[in-house]
């Protein structure tokens, strides 16, 4: 209206004005009108074109996902932007009204012309600042693997979204994206919805009884002796009968040791732990994993996991079972649906290395988008535990010895006067509970660092499974099979071993040399670090006759005897083999005696026994337990090991 009025006034002025002596006055007024109207029309056209194109770009998404998610009761909807400037002013209101008008026009024209935008424009209402969320969602579901991984990475690195936007991703993403976010270091935990509500327990049953029912439903035939042993004890009629069988208060990890006779009942958490140990053994069998899932085991384990938030050992055993079940790809969907990815993502961010590593193993077995390997029970990746763009060029494997473990064997040496450690724990350069995970990973980020765990004992009295009699030869074949499934041998590798673990490494390499499918393990082995390995036997076995504690020495201890023919054959065969393959070797040996219990003090591995016959032999003034535990990062033990790894893998790390 204002434009028309202005034109009329100008025309009247031109018509009623007296003739000017200058003839160009009339054309000057016309040019003014043309400039004004032309600018207005051009600007309006550009504005409309921009808004239409913006709408078209923002609305090219999968509307079925939008409609499906709108039906969910837990959709998070925002009512107003947090930026006050966006919600006030005539520009914002005019733009909003223009969006609605153009949307109606385009929807109507699309219906008439049967165009491709009929459904999107009629059903979707997406603000500009929300486009990134939906575009990333769409990108994460593409067939192009590179595009999918990039979308997940962009999601994980986004920290400026509102709460409802994270929840949109959590509800609309597929399992593959959810697992990828759980394995991304920077992911916000708001990407993960709380697990579904668990079914209520039957009034007549406790969790302990539910666990026993689950165990009883599993096949009981064709089981090895250890599975039968754990299952039979877990299925005892009551806690009292189990306590009577164990001779008083039962403590997991022992068999036949004297316990407090004054306790008549076993704590329920202890019985649950025993049931979990049996389930771990069952979960190593694929058919039994199917039965566990079919009988509600995933939900029951989740209930137990939440109940024992203050018991890390129970939670770790539960994650071991989930990690074993995740080895079966057809069970990935039930595991995701039951809400385990959310719990594992939270555990991955735990400051405790053991909890984080158990969760990392389970998620790695679930992640088939970036992980080809499968990590069986007892094989833990210490680095990298998250998805990473850092190329991995070599592997370093850590194998513990007698009474050791995948994490505690490689911790920092315990201080004699240990005070409050809160401040020290924050600085991993000064204090760590697992130096390969913190120090070595930081110094050599291009390495994949794996630690292996297996059961050992000094005496059959302390065996977790008294029926288990595993020789070094048996364990080496078992570990070799697990490590090959984890991709060991595909890259250059270095073995790091302590005590009996070194004998296992030697046996594994000799066995691999006899199997064509294991040739890559031999060809890619670059070097070995031996921490006090008894190549020629140990004094430990000599005490078995005189010391009551070792009255019934385990098979592992018997094989360490100096007169063991198997040990001598292993040493002779490996020495010749290592020389032929030109393996780089570094030997450390303790010079101080070690206390075993409160009564035994002995030099476990003397210097002459730790001498392989090749490589440097370095005596260190520590005992047998601390030979693989540096006091601090700049200690000689760690720095010499780091130097050996860098020098041995120098060419591989440069390529």
UniProtKB/TrEMBL annotation:
It is a single-pass membrane protein. It comes from the Eukaryota. InterPro entries: AB_hydrolase_fold, ARM-like, ARM-type_fold, SERAC1. It is found in: Endoplasmic reticulum; Mitochondrion membrane. One of its GO terms (cellular component) is endoplasmic reticulum. The keyword NADP does not apply. Keywords: Endoplasmic reticulum, Lipid biosynthesis, Lipid metabolism, Membrane, Mitochondrion, Phospholipid biosynthesis, Phospholipid metabolism, Transmembrane, Transmembrane helix. GO terms for biological process: phospholipid biosynthetic process. SUPFAM superfamilies: alpha/beta-Hydrolases, ARM repeat. Facilitates the transport of serine from the cytosol to the mitochondria by interacting with and stabilizing Sideroflexin-1 (SFXN1), a mitochondrial serine transporter, playing a fundamental role in the one-carbon cycle responsible for the synthesis of nucleotides needed for mitochondrial DNA replication. Plays an important role in the phosphatidylglycerol (PG) remodeling that is essential for both mitochondrial function and intracellular cholesterol trafficking. Belongs to the SERAC1 family. PANTHER family: PROTEIN SERAC1 (PTHR48182). This is Protein SERAC1.
